[in-house]
Design a protein that fits this description.
It contains three helices and seven strands. The protein has helices at about 60-75, 125-130, 135-140; strands at about 15-25, 30-35, 50, 50-55, 75-90, 90-105, 115-120. β1 and β2 form a beta hairpin. The longest helix has 13 residues, at about 60-75. The protein starts with 16 loop residues before the first strand and ends with a helix. The relative contact order is 0.24. The model has no long low-confidence stretch (mean pLDDT about 85).
């Protein structure tokens, strides 16, 4: 579907572009993996982000987040489940579903849409993110142990 040519004002009933995002958390270091993007196609202000992307139509969402994280980080992760979902003030038609993930294997390496990866402490996230960071998602991340 070409989202550039959709008249979103005609679809007030909730047509969204779904994005699955992995909150890849290392319980030993207490850090989260983020990646730096260049020229995000949906939100131009987006630079640092959680790994993720669009699921295929026939794809299970848990499998999609694992695939997307692998493509962008080279890590094999396990999805521990959905933790949050939101739309964005910057781009109302995007619906992001966040999953808590843990690394199962692999060595991180930036790929696909990412040009750099970085492990950061939860309290450092906001200094990297230039877009909205929902308070409830922030609270959840700050309480990870």
């Amino acid at each position: 579907m070409d989202t550039q040519n959709i008249d979103w004002k005609k679809h007030k009933g909730g047509i969204f572009v779904v994005i699955v995002l992995g909150i890849v958390y290392d319980t030993l270091t207490k850090k989260i993996l983020i990646g730096r993007r260049v020229r995000d196609p949906h939100i131009k202000e987006l630079t640092w982000a959680f790994p993720g992307g669009k699921p295929e139509y026939s794809e299970d969402l848990d499998e999609a987040v694992k695939r997307e994280v692998k493509e962008e980080t080279n890590l094999n992760v396990e999805s521990l489940g959905t933790i949050f979902a939101k739309t964005y003030p910057e781009k109302k038609e995007l619906l992001s579903i966040y999953y808590l993930c843990e690394v199962k294997s692999g060595k991180e390496k930036a790929g696909d849409d990412f040009v750099e990866l970085k492990w950061v402490k939860p309290e450092e996230l906001e200094k990297y993110f230039k877009t909205s960071f929902h308070p409830k998602l922030k609270e959840y991340i700050m309480n990870l142990n």
